[in-house]
Every structure is written in C-alpha cells, then in structure tokens.
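so my prof wants the structure for this chain in the tokens format not the other one, which i didnt know existed until like an hour ago. anyway here's the sequence
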Amino acid sequence: LMNFGYADEVILPMQLSVPATAVPGDVVTLEADATWLVCEEICIPEDGKVSLQLAVGETSQRDPVWAPIIDVARASLPVPAPFETDFALTETMVELLLKSPDLGLAFQSRTIQEATFFPREEGLIEHVATQNFVVTDEGVRLSLPRGYETNDYQAISGLFVFSQDLEDGTLTNAFSFDAAKVASLAPAAAPASNLAGVVQAIILAFFGGILLNIMPCVFPVLFLKALAFMKHADKEASALRREGLSYASGVVVSFVLLGATLLALRAGGEAIGWGFQLQTPAIVGGLAFLLFAVGLSLSGVFSIGSSIAGVCSGLAQARGQWGSFFTGVLATVVATPCTAPFMGAAIGFALTHSAVAALLVFVFLGAGMALPFLLLAFCPALAKRLPKPGQWMERVKQALAFPMYGAAAWLAWVFALQTDPNALFALLIGMVLLGFGLWTFEVTRLAKGSWPHVGKGAAVLALLCAFIILTQIKTPIMDARAMPSSSGATQGLGYEPFSEARVDELTAAGKPVFVNFTAA
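here's what i got, hopefully its the right format
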C-alpha cells in the first residue's frame, strides 16, 4: 500500500472572487468542510468545519504574514511540461514516453537522482511498484504496472517530479502534462547502464558475497569444506587449486542460474526479488529438509564423506572436483534465505538495469562467496596455517549442527504461516522420516550379509515417503485466519476471514473493505 501525502507543512493556494454586490466594509465569510488523513506508520482520518471572515477593502491589500508564504507556495507549483507526452496501454502495463532528449541526457549523466510520476487518475498504475525509466532517442520512457482500474483511457494526466544535482545544489522540478493515447510505443531498449554505477554495484555484490560466508545457514556447510582443506593441506598444490576452482564454479554457476531465473520471471511481469522462491511452501519445506539433513550429518547421525565436503560419499579422487562443485551448489542453495550487508543495493541495481549488468552482479556475488576457499586453494602457505586436524574438529562440527537445526526450525515456522497446522504436522512427520531414513542407511552401511541392502531399501522408502508428503501439501489461496476478536485493537471492527468472493460482494455493494495482511 502506498499513499501520497505532504510532510511538515502544506499551503494549498486557491483563487476566490469577491461577489459583484460587495461594497467596501462588507464582511465575507468563507466556510469549508475539510477532511484529511494524518499519517506516519498508519493513517488516521480526521475532519472538521473551518471558517474565516474577511473585510472587503477599497484596494487590494497584501497580508504581511501570509502573502510571502503564499508567494513561496505559488512559486513551487508545477509548471506545464515543455515537452509532449504519449502513452500506450497493454493488459498489464502503462507505457509513457516523455519526448525530451534533454531529459534523456540528464538521466544518462546521472545528475537526476530521484524521479517519480504521479498520475491524476486513481487506480491507473500500481503505485507501490518500482518505476523503471529507460532513455531512448526521443527522451525518457516509463514502464508502469497497471493498477486496479481497467478503463480504456484515451487521455491521462499527471505530474513528473525529479531532483537534479547542479553545481550550486539540488533543484527539484515538477512538470504537469496531459498525455495523448497512441496505439503503441516503439520497443524500448534496455537501460544504458552507467559504467560507474555498474562498478559500484559489482563492488557491493562482491563484499556482500564474502559476508554470506558467515551467515548461520551457510557457515556450517563451509566448515565441511574447511575440514577437507585441513586434512589435505599437504597434498599436491595443483589438486588443491582444482578443488578450489571447482567449488568456485559451483557457487558462481548457481548464482548466475538463480539471477537468470529471477530476471526471466520479472520480465514476465512478476514483482519479485532476492529470495523469491521462499514464497512457495514446497520450496520452504524442501529447504527445511535439506538444512535438517545437513544438521544430522554434522551431529554424526550419518556420514557423507569428507572427500567431497559433504555431498556424497565414497567418490574416487577423480570425482573429487565434482564433489567440490556440488558443495558450491549446496552452499548457494542454503544461502538463499540470507541477505548479507551490501547485497540489497547491489541486487536492487541488478533488477532495474540490463541483463548483462544484472548477471555481472550475480557473478560477483558468487565470486565474493567463493573467495575464502579460492585463497586457501591458491595460497598453500595459508592452507598450511590452518589448525592441525584433531578431535577438536569433531566437536566443532557437532556444535555447528545447531545453527542448521535453528535455520530448519525457522523455515518450519515460515512454512506454518504459509499453510496451516495440518501441513506443519505433515512437514514434521516428513522430517522424522528423513532422519529415520538417513540413520537406517548409516547403521546398515557397513553391516555384513544382506543388511546393507535392507538398510538402503528402508532408507529409500523413508525418503520417498518424506518427498511425497512434501509434494502433496496443498497451498491455500490465502491465509484464512481471522484476527482474534478478543483483541482490544479489533473488538467491534467486524474482522472476518479473508475471502475473495466476500470482497467482491462488498465492493459490488459500494462498501469499503479494509484488508489486513502481513508477511514473514
């Protein structure tokens, strides 16, 4: 939800005409019924009646207090735009073309720091959506998601407000315009990514990737990789380099695939950002399973083989590089619920610029995350400075299981908010089956006779049941839980569970509806 409002103080100039019958000395009474909203985190409606009595004078008189204030307010009013504007409508977008090459040059030079289109037509655009500006040969083009109003507008109007950095300070410009409808606008090229902006985003992404390594979801997985380096720090340098490069490749490739998926979905009209996959309960549940399994491994419930840093066991040395690659994939997967410092600005830049610039940001996110192990792989002196292997490694590994259990518990909580208590119970049963299957595999793995086959069969059956439970969980269209009626904040306000049909029924009857929702 987005509201437009005024901060601190507002002057609303208007022109009044004195009645033709008025004579000097008469008193004119001005009256108004006023309604307004006072907003900070929420908006409170207020209203009142106001009146003012003014004496009719012989000549025009300027009030010494209010005349200068009104002058300032009039001077700050929007001016008619010195350029023409066209617009086109599609089913999902409003496309605006501000025909001003000078405005386009200002955008390209990045002297314009902030720009917003304010439509006069209510419901024309989705106000909370990002307003994307693209520089074309003709000027500046805006692509705006359509709002709830489905009218086939033949003309629209509004304000275009932008702040521009000049040598003597910042200038705010406000242009009012009327736009004529055209059948369509020429396809707009992707925004030209300013080199300085791309470099800045890449640097932020790189440092954000480095900091991802210390996030609670990621660090225990990386510790498994560190164990492998400790145990093999004295082996051939070229082998260590190959493992480091394989791990880095797994991280970078995973980030690029994630970024490409995100860009493709946004190009299709989805309003999503980093962590978008966590909106899907099945993926949240799958991540909870994965982190729970990694925790069980760290606790020693089952062994997953240090030669590949925790992906699978018993691989020959020739396959160790694949193990390192998939460790990078695993580290990226468990990193997706986390956002490190610097990442927000970098990903925000990526999602509003060309695909090439965006993918570069994701490449450097991955490069930053892979950097610590690349340094160990390519600097043998650093690898040899690692602590000597010993019993302490097992204790630290077991301790690091608990951040994984904590992350799995958090994901289960998110899952519960997305679904319902029955689905949460099914998820927990799936985690029990997952633990049983992995434990069965471990205790029978080295047994004699047919027990290994029995154990593998039982493990596969348990894991299959856990997977089926996850895929069968139904996602409700909306969380239908009503707000507690006993709450002092909601008592008597008529809260009821959300129903799309109920909202349609009330709005068709001309009744306003307040939808109260949240996110986890």
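also thought this was worth mentioning. The chain has a mean pLDDT of 78.
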